[in-house]
Design goal:
homotrimer; alpha/beta; Udp-n-acetylmuramoylalanyl-d-glutamate--2,6- Diaminopimelate Ligase, Chain: A, domain 1; UDP N-Acetylglucosamine Acyltransferase, domain 1; 4 helices; about 25% strand; flat; disordered C terminus
């Protein structure tokens, strides 16, 4: 099933030659064949392009009726009769480029919606698209061709480079951003972090949070994710770093370039990441840590100490992946064979997963 | 204490006979007695209806001054003198129906607020209630009696059936929804998922996300939860499936009917759930898994492999609940008695829970 | 580097005597010296005030060129020549007061933005600042000097005391709040909780949620956090309690005063916290628990049973911290030395952290 034209209208059609060129792929097929769009391998038709990453779906490839397939060179022989092959050592990247040709990103429609509130001294670059009920504060600066979605709020003094997207309901404050930065729906950048200190009487006094957030070029912040501004120095996300949805970045976190932070991860204040660190879903990092470049942190890990560059850790507390795996296997075997302790009934009763049915009498 | 009339005005009063009928319960008491509302068992008065699920709160029942109580037949003998009993094998369901009689859900007030922005070619069913600053995009279609709250955004081409609620600050895009679907406050449905691929130079190229989100009848998405649209095929939540708050649903997740997904759960892309799967709070599932119907996944579980239908798993990595329980007991006993290793000071220092007090000198 | 004046304009300058007085600190230095602002210890200049918490950063202190430093009395001797010292047993609190003198919190600018929608019978105290596109519902009451940010929504009947801040995109409904309460960006308070019950046929029927949310004085709710209203009785957060970002509070949770709930914590319905309970990041608590005053719950803990006052627990399932530490050490040693089981290949393969690259063929 190809993309629903109501939501994803397709440009084109394009000849195979054009697609192969955009993809940087070597074409084995009729260069003049016209293709209309992209589709999954198992449902693509004669006018569509699919792709294959590796051997795992070889059966689907052989059964496919796609007009063309992007795939690694070593699988070329498995392409069905009549299907054109575009060979690439990075087939997913090649496919992304082809898909983008059929479905270019939505271009900003220059203009300011009449319901938007734009401060008189805000500076908007040429071609900006400011949507309904958007709010752009005093002295804010947007580069060229920025897309500001419905209800988005850009606070006073914020600066964004060219080709940024601040999507519906996103809020940015105390923020300096480069080019091609995206804040997805409901993202929150620059708000006051969790900084306070107790008085002797037990009241909490807020510590003024006097830093900012700096987002490098091509940073993306996922839907409903939060990036707190710094306490004194800044919170910084390096160029290309991407946050998935529902991520929490505490004050004064600093990352290098190209970090990948998956959904629901939490990074406590002042922790520093090198370049190309990957953190899998729901992992948590305590504060003031150093995570070296290209370290990989597993899903649900609980990281409480520094991680050297290039190391893979997982578990809570986190440990090298190989160790964690062995420990998990051992624990599982233990659970599978150990009889209940003679010490008496289990105290940790595993509560049943809630079914939404309250067990109260009220 | 019954419901605050400033927030929850009560319809009625109603005679017991009417309540018992609505509840599908067998009445043991004066059918003509008038009741005014509902209240918790331990604070209900003579004009109020309470309920009891099971034996756990029997003491509260005996002390209760409620005018009527809904409860299972086997507890009928414990009802205090003067208190009418409505007997039901599903007392909580019966109580829900009675409560809804006193407090019917807020009906939409037909009309479009003057500050709302509704595209000229959007189609609104009869009786729709479009609130302040709501935005309804080009070609969107809403069924009858839909309630769209303040600042809600319904993107171009979206389709909703009848009696849907898209509450304050919710955002839907690339979305096809059935009837009686609810998006709670700040829910995000249909946004671009976390799909990108690296170039050889280490830049990330976004993979166009060309699918949609399909929500079956009676699906509910909790506050600030996120449901990403599919990469090519759709992300699908089956009829009756309910998500609690702060849940993350990755691209191309597919669920059957009646799944229950508790707060802060994360499900990675392309994982499939059968029918009536229950996932307890903060659990995480990796991608491309198959979770069979009626499987139950425990709180904070880390599911990394398929779960057969009807199985209960918990732990991280997840394992059958019985095994996880035994492993946890063993681990706990180990912690309670094992002396510190002679290998030297503990390397995993349990960091103190943060108190909001920064330990920096800045 | 001191605070960016574009975002954090500084009041002052002030003489040291004034700062010491505000800080409640003992001054050792020239009372007439003028200071301009605050900065981190390692970058502060002659016109700036820094602070030091303890010995950890003594080296930075000795190298510092700050004009004045706030620090504990026992470190006074380490203050560099020419740097004035302000001695305090609570240096972070003292510093917070000095920072607030230079950077007082943004005062509300009295007035109602022309794009705001305020119900005719809403009552606004003197000096309220109602921002663009804010919505204040029928019968809502705000005390004096409340700040309501862009797109914030205050539902019908809600009551807030004086000096509250309901920041951009926050939504409050069914809510009674005291003085100096803050809802940060995108916070959701008062929405319908996750309450429903199954019919025999497997449909879910919503249980009307007829309670409210009550927020004591000085409660703060972090960005994108969710606090569900009660099912019958109320959900209550005691005075001074602070929630970080992306926290989930289920219906009928009740806390005492001064609780600290760090990012991404989830507390299930009807669980009760005493006073000054601290819950570290990403911890989860099941429902109907009692957590005693001053208990401390560790990061990522899974609490399934009551915690006595003053106890520290961590792990999942949670256990006393000392026990958890020992168990973790043991597990780690196990992983580091145990050879792969002769039982065969590991079944729990640790999936690689996702890199955003889909492994599908579509």
């Amino acid at each position: 099933m190809s993309a629903d034209p109501r939501f994803h209208p397709a440009a084109g059609p394009y000849p195979l030659s054009r697609l192969a060129e955009a993809a940087g792929a070597e074409l084995a097929g009729d260069a003049a064949r016209m293709l209309n769009g992209v589709a999954p391998l198992d449902s693509a038709g004669a006018g569509e392009v699919a792709f294959l990453d590796g051997r795992k779906h070889l059966a689907s490839l052989k059964a496919s009726r796609a007009g063309a397939v992007v795939l690694p060179p070593d699988l070329a022989a498995s392409v069905p009769e009549g299907c054109a092959a575009m060979l690439s050592r990075t087939p997913h990247l090649a496919f992304a480029r082809i898909a983008a040709l059929f479905h270019p990103p939505r271009a900003p429609v220059p203009g300011i919606h009449p319901t938007a509130t734009v401060a008189a001294d805000a500076v908007l670059g040429e071609g900006c698209d400011i949507g309904p009920h958007a709010v752009i504060g005093a002295g804010a600066v947007l580069g060229a061709r920025c897309l500001v979605g419905p209800h988005a709020v850009i606070g006073p003094g914020c600066v964004f480079g060219d080709d940024c997207r601040i999507l519906a309901h996103a809020a940015a404050s105390f923020c300096l951003a480069g080019h091609r930065v995206t804040l997805h729906q409901g993202a929150r950048v620059g708000q006051e972090g969790f900084g306070f200190t107790p008085t002797p009487e037990g009241r909490f006094v807020t510590i003024p949070q006097l830093g900012r957030v700096r987002l490098g070029d091509e940073v993306e912040i996922g839907a409903n994710s939060c990036v707190d501004r710094g306490a004194l120095d800044d919170t910084v996300l390096g160029p290309g770093t991407r946050l998935d949805n529902l991520v929490q970045i505490g004050h004064n976190v600093v990352t290098g370039r190209g970090c990948v932070i998956v959904a629901q991860v939490g990074i406590s204040g002042s922790t520093r990441l090198g370049d190309f660190v990957t953190i899998a879903g729901q992992a948590g990092l305590t504060g003031h840590l150093n995570i070296g470049s290209k370290a990989r942190i597993g899903a649900q890990a609980g990281v409480q100490s520094d991680v050297p560059a290039g190391q893979d850790v997982t578990g809570s507390p986190a440990m090298p992946v190989k160790d964690a795996l062995r420990a998990a296997i051992y624990l599982r075997q233990l659970g599978a064979r150990k009889a209940r302790s003679a010490a008496g009934p289990a105290r940790e009763e595993q509560k049943e997963p809630p079914s939404g049915r309250s067990e109260q009498t009220d």
